[in-house]
Request: fold
Amino acid sequence: MTELNVAQDEKSEVKDWYFTFGFGQTYASKYHVVYGTKDEAREKMFERFGSKWAMQYDSAEAAGVDRYKLMEII
Reply:
């Protein structure tokens, strides 16, 4: 499988995506989980929070949920 195919497969995979918020933002030290493809999840985040979030991750570990003791926004 080529790199292009791997990137495309990840983009179309339906799963939980983890979004974090930056320092100084209303929800700093928190995260939110959205289920869908990578692009669908980003769209839902923009609908819910506008551009007031920082990063999108493919796992809780990558987002630093436990490491930084982030609290979930439900």
Notes: Helices lie at 3-12, 38-49, 60-63. The first strand starts at residue 15 and ends at 20. The beta strands are 15-20, 30-36, 55-57, 71-72. The mean pLDDT is 91.
